Amino acid sequence: MPRVFLSNLDLGPVLEAVRRNGAAVVARALADPFRTRLERELRTVPYEPAPAEVGPVRQETDVFVVRDLEGFPALVELAHEYHVAVLAHAREIRGLATYAPNEIHLQRYRPGSLGITPHLDGKRYRRLVAFFTVRGSACLSVLRERAGEELARFSIGPGSLALLRAPGLGGLRDGRQFHAIMPVGDRRQLFFPVDDDYSCRCGEVPLFGAPEDDGHFGFLCFLARRPWAAGGAACWAWLWASAVR
Question: pLDDT digit string (tens) for 19-67?
């Protein structure tokens, strides 16, 4: 069975960057054979359109919430290996020792779509919000406020891992960052001159797979939702209208 992550993946510096800056991206985290297997496994998922507007947030995306992991062996393997990789650094950053992802959301953006405008993920999601790009390419924009200064812009493509700070990480009661996702519908050059902590030359952002690929951008998101009651079981229900604000 192919390995899940590239052999040189070290989440330590990445998690520290998330604690300090609110967001970080690993351009290549998933081993390509595993990513291909994962993409094949998720290909027939019955996505449904998300609401076009949620308060001030606008979006054009299809969603699917994984409520039963039976039939998703690659997804189960990724969830396990990701959790283990994060917990390896539990002593380094406050809050990670109790980090336990218990929801998985799949999202798909069609070619030329709006994506999702600046928003904050719900406060109920603790410690980290993590999403792995399965196919396609997009830009992740991190902002100081909803309509404020752009702090960073990352290229996210096939096999990448993006991590966002959530309440409780590093001892912060909140710490969330406004962010937006903008799908990239073709090959293009992207150069983002930002501050020293975020500077990156994204270079060419290719679409996933072969030339006949349909141009969709898709990722899966791991969330650690606070249980309904202390000591309660993990909640797998997803209320989209309250997931962002």
Answer: 999 999 999 999 999 999 999 999 889 999 999 999 999 999 999 999 8
For residue 160, what is the domain's CATH number? 2.60.120.590
Q: Which residues of 188-226 are buried (b: 16+ CB within 10 A; e: fewer)?
A: eebebeeeeebebebeebebbeeeeeebbbbbbbbbbbb
CB 108 within 8 A of CB 39: no
Please tell me the total count of domains within the chain. 1
Nearest to 29 by CA among 97, 91, 101, 78: 78
Residue 16: inside a domain: no
Is 45 part of a structural domain of the chain?
A: yes
For residues 162-174, average pLDDT: 95
Is 73 domain-assigned?
yes
Which DSSP helix (H) or strand (E) runs through 40? helix 32-42
The structure's pTM equals: 0.82
For residue 163, what are the β-bridge partners?
Answer: 24, 130
Quote the domain boundaries for residue 43: 23-235
Taking only the tens place, the pLDDT of each residue in 105-123 is 999 998 888 899 999 999 9
Asked if the structure places residue 117 within a domain, the reply is yes
- The Cα 94–Cα 81 span in angstroms is 21
Instruction: Read off the pLDDT band of 183 (50, 70, 90).
Output: confident
